[in-house]
Amino acid sequence: MTFNPTTDKIAITIPQFTLKKKSDGIFGKYNEPYIVSLAIDEQGSGTPEIGFNAMPFPKVTSGNTVTMLGDGHLLYGPKNPGQYVALSVLIMESDSDMQDLGVKIEEIVSSKAVELGMAAIITAGPGSAAILGILKELTQLVAGQLKKNKDDELFRTEGTFLRDHQVPYHINRQYTGLGNEYIDLSMSILPLTRANGQGSAIKLLPL
Hints:
Layout: E1 10-14, E2 16-19, E3 33-41, E4 49-56, E5 65-67, E6 73-79, E7 84-93, H1 101-116, H2 118-123, H3 128-148, E8 152-162, E9 173-179, E10 183-191, E11 203-206
Antiparallel strand pairs: 1-6, 1-10, 2-5, 2-10, 3-4, 3-7, 4-11, 7-8, 9-10
Helix pairs in contact: 1-3
């Protein structure tokens, strides 16, 4: 079936990741990494919003690979992005109580987005490069706040997926070997009508 980039939906997912080593020395058998994703697409310029997801992975041992069910852990979508989607992914290690983690991070994201005046920036429609720049700045502020809560940053990456390429949004590609000394992960871009319901859904945070 032919993919129509102007109408069809995509999803960006993490099928699996490996915790290569923990960040805080040799104490404790288990680690508690969590993934935070932030996404802004061209479709959201009319009603400024950020696609947000946060997922904890308790009791992960160093060297262990976490494999997701179905299509993987959702970072974006399923949605049609318009001309672009800018994505930022942050992986942290929790040194605190993981209860209500998603709610706490959502509050931090919303607060820092207001500090940066992101609603006005997104509404102005400055283009994918500027949107990615402000998204990187937001991620840095969020990571800084989480570090104040005693959590450790393991890995961060960001990028844009553009519609008007030979392969729109890089669909049907899987990137492997993304990571650093702490994390190794893969990322997939899928033409996908709807999520499989096996993980947490993307939440749209209005600005």
